[in-house]
Amino acid sequence: MRTMNLKKYILLIILIPVFGGCITTSKDPDNIFLSKVGYDEKIVWAESLRLFVMPDEACIASWPIYARKDSLWAILDGKGNPVTPVKFEELSNFWGSCNTENIIAKWDGKYGAINTNGETVIQAEYEQLELYFNDFKAMQNGKLGLINAQNEVILPFQFDYIQWWERNKSALVRKNSKWGVINTSLKEIIPFGKYDKIKPESIAGPIGHYAKVHKNNEWAIIELSGSMRTKFYDEIDYFTEEGLTGIVVDGNMGFVDLNDNLLIPPEYKPFTHDKLDVVLKTFFGWICLQKEGKYGFFDLKGNPVTPVKYDTVDFSSIKTDQTINFTIDGSKGKLDKNGKEFFR
Fold this sequence. Notes:
The protein is mainly beta. The chain contains 5 helices and 28 strands. The strands form 7 sheets. It has a 6-stranded antiparallel beta sheet. Strands 4-5-6-7 form a 4-stranded antiparallel beta sheet, with no helix packed on it. A 4-stranded antiparallel beta sheet has the order 8-9-10-11, with no helix packed on it. The radius of gyration is 26 Å and the shape is flat. The model is unreliable at 1-36 and 49-55 (pLDDT under 50).
């Protein structure tokens, strides 16, 4: 979890209505506590997290309170007793787990980690430190690496970007502007420079793990092992959990499956409203395509649901009565989830 300046964090929380009243600060009625012990501001995690994580009440007593004096922070116990001196430049969010009690902190200009008893778990020796699953992304001398909670190096500090490819087994990394995939022994699974770019946001995909790769101004889909699942196209523009993969050829969209079988030929234009596209997929399990100014629908396996024949389509009623409004040849109607038309 990325550490952050808690003063800014509190101001942001105060301004966001959904969190209103969850964080106790010096502006709350409880500032008698603050003046009494000499702090300017506090965060009571037991109050702010109870609404979201529904914790075991036995855990709450061990949850810390963060208190600020001038520009530095201290940790108090659940009763407000000091646990640490006022010395931290930053403290990370605390998420209230009984099993995860480490707090990323910044002191003496560097990041490390402490536990809720104030004991140092990881020495403050990093330029950045971010909780990453059960491990930490860390930066030294401008380069990223991975360490565990015992401060043991998992991946050395050599990289400009790191993301688990297959958790605890292999990682997608960028080094010297080149992308590759390595295992924790630094063996290359996908050699550096084989592709111009590997899009990390595409890794979580259907049926397993996949990613988009870029080479010579074209895109393809690969899997964890590096095996190709599709050939290269002008663009890969759509990717569903069912494996339906949108391809772009000469500006037109079509669809293939993850064995690169052509399901819908590339002769359509996509429906351009992304949010409505998600609504359509969620409520109907369809996609909407257009061709020569007409609209039609396909299911997520690439099968046609309707002909491409509608002059306009409108999704405003899709959530309320599970229908899609359309017009065709001057007539208005609705389309139900089975593709059946009802004219008005």
